[in-house]
Structures are given as C-alpha cells and as structure tokens.
Known about the structure:
This protein has helices at about 30-50, 75-80, 90-95, 105, 110-115, 115-120, 125-130, 135-160, 200-205, 220-230, 245-250, 250-255, 280-285, 290-300; strands at about 10, 20-25, 60, 165-170, 210-215, 235-240, 260-265, 300-305, 320-325, 330-335, 345-350, 365-375, 375-380, 385-400, 405-415, 425, 450-460.
Amino acid sequence: MDEKRFPRAQLRKAGGVLQTADVVSLFHDEAPKADVKAFSALMQHLKDLDSAHHTVIMVQVENEQGLLGDSRDGSDAANAVFSKPVPADLVSFLAEDYKNLHPHLQSHLTHFTALPAAKQRAGTWGSVFGPGPYTDELFMAYHYAKYVDRVASAGKAIYPLPLFTNAWQNSAIPDGQEAVAGGGSIPGEYPSGGCVSNVLDIWQRFAPALSFLSPDIYMNDYDLTFANYRHRNQPLFVPEQRRDAFGAIRIWSAFGTFGAIGISPFGIDTLAAETCAYTKHYKLLAQVAQHVLAAHRRGNSSVGFFFDDPAVPGVDAAEVKKVALGGYDLAIQRAFVFGKPTAGSGMVIHLPSEEPADTSSTTTHKSAFLLIGSGFQVKFTHPSPRAHFTGLLGLAEQRVTDAATGAMETVRRLNGDETRSGAWAMMPVEEPDYGGYPIAITVPMGTGVVRCEVYALLREEGGEEACEVV
C-alpha cells in the first residue's frame, strides 16, 4: 500500500504515543477518489451485465466503517480539522431537527444544547460538543458519512440500485466472552464513526445516497436493535446476524413486528441445509410470504415474537408478550406442555374482513387472524368494558396451495382439548412433551399455519349482557 498516497489513521495511545492503524485516514483526498473510481467501475459492470435481468437488487457500500482502537483519528490532518469550527450544515441540522433525533444521540448533546446559538455556530468540535469519546464519535461519523456518500453517489449516478451500508454494533460484552469481534460500549471498542444508533441521524442526513442503514447483530438485544434501525421510518434489513437457532427464531420478530425486508445470517452457506436451523423457518416464511407482505402494506397488522429455550439460564419459561391487534388484546406465550417446554416463534397477522361490516349488531365483535409458527399459544381478550366473554369461533389448520398467490385450504379443524376448551389458540411444536401424561391434548403441529376466528360478547349499552351471537 502506498502510505504517502493513502496515509493511515493514527491511534492515540498512552503517553502521547501514536500507533498506525490498519485503515486509511479520512482526511486526505486520494482514498475517496480511488474508492469512487473502483465503485463506479463495479456499478458499470453490474449495469452492463445484469440490468436486463435484475438478479442483483441492491448493493452494500463499504463494510462496518469506523475506527477501532481509538475514538477518533489522531493524525495531524485529523487534528487540524477537529480544531476548526464545526461545519455549519451539521450545527444547523442538530439544532433545527433536535426533537426528531434518536434518543441515543440526544443523550450525547447536553453540552451542545446548553450553548447559545452563536457559540454553536462558531466553536470547534470540542467547545461545541464537549470533550470525550462521543464527541470524537460524532466527528468521525460526520466525515465517514460524507466519505461514503461521495462513493455511493458516484455509483448510483451510473446504475441507480438501492444502496446501503452496515454497522458493527456498540454493545457491552457478556461475562465470560472475549471482545474478539463482539463490540464494546465506548467508541473505539467498536468502530467509532460507524452508523450505530448514537449517530444514526448523522448518517441519514449526510449520506443521502444510501437508501437505508443496517445493523449487524450478534451480541445485542435483537428487538431493541430492530427498533433502533426503524428510526425515521427507514426499512429494516439485517445483512449479518447469528446463523444458529438463537438467531433463526428472531427472524419472526423482524418480519412480523418491524416489517423487515430481509435477514442474512452470516456464514449460513457453511451449514448443511438439513441441519441448519433456518431451513424450516425460511420454508414456512416462503409459503406465507404473500400474507406477510400484505400485512406490511396494511400497516399495524402483524406482530412477530420468539421464546428462547427455557433450559437456557436466565430465560423465563412463563414469559408473556402482550400486544393489541385487530381490536383485541393478545397474550402470547410459550405453548403449554405437561413435560418440558421448548423454544417457540412465529407471528400473528390480523386479517381484513372478507364480509361487509355488520353495523346492526352492537352486542358482538368478530375478527380473524392468521397464526404462523410453532411452540406458542395466544389468548384473546376484547378490551371493551362492555365485553363479558371472548372466545374462539373457529380454529382451522391451513395448507398453502399456491405460495405465489397465498391461496390456502383447510386441512383440519381444531377444538376442544386442542384449544384447552376454547381458552387458547394453540400452536404446539412438532413433538410436544407430554411428560408421561396419557392424553395427547396438545396435538403436534402440522403445517404451522392456522386461521383463527375470535368473537366477543358485549353487553348492551346500558344493559346487562348480549342476547345472541351472530
């Protein structure tokens, strides 16, 4: 590598010692010019080779940007920029759009918000944002975002595919695990300047050529990370995550609750399909894809969830997820068994009514849901104070007959013991543990898809109770 043409970042170590990093410095022009040239050539190649076929549907620009080993570049060129006034476009953005910033970024702007506007506009990075690693992270994020946007814009001008980039996450390392590639809680322990939640707004504002920003998830809380990366309603795509069963069951939360457009387990290609935990989940998801996409288009029409194996230390076997969907309160929990409970996952979709609304009856309420997955059960409750009973009108296992259209047919109806006398819509695993109990009331899961119709009895306005069920 030509170090004169492409100077490297410098890490500030104890005693004022500088250590050369294994990444180029952002504060010289040759590196972005070279990246622009290379990425433009790639996009031209894709256009020439694939524009008639569209087998490549989007492109990741760079990978897990950021500086490891220090919170910012300590080279002379970087120090010179750090000592100059903060760019006006950044100051204006933070001041004018403060209420819309991610809470993680807001929490690092207390020094900034306490300053009068004149000092915000005229101060250096340290005087405007205060000393410390999160100011360094903001500094690096602004310049990384500008760098990547320059590269992405050049490629997009040639072949306008959706472009994105990804982030190595900031996270505390669990006890007993080494921080080999898992992250850390301070900028520099994870790549400082990458598009983590602390600086997600900076990337969204200053890298507009990117269609969205994505998290690589290994050590983090999945649901919290999913929520972080829906910030400003951007799409959720996970380009890297765990390839084991722990990761596999979490795809249902991504697709069901957060409307993900994709999940890509890192290293899945090294596993045999017959033993890979994702095989059955992806197979089921492919069958119901049209129903999932329709729920995404309707908005607020689905919820996804997962329950880890209760044999894992710290996992609550009685965990209950409570959500409101389709006019009902849902309590979702691990499926009942007499013996050992298992992991479970899936999603519930509220289905649009296939019949005209019955406005003549004020004493009943009906809704239909699609239950997908296994190892869970759902209890429905109508939230109205007039509701004095909620029950299951019908539970029918479905087989998808045409995945392209989502067409289904009923293969069996479930009732009685299979629903614990109508109390729960149950989705057992393939081999539930009966714990030696002689009656097989938890019928093993078949297709993993069930249509559930729910009804509630409502008391008359000013009366005691409903008269009939329609």
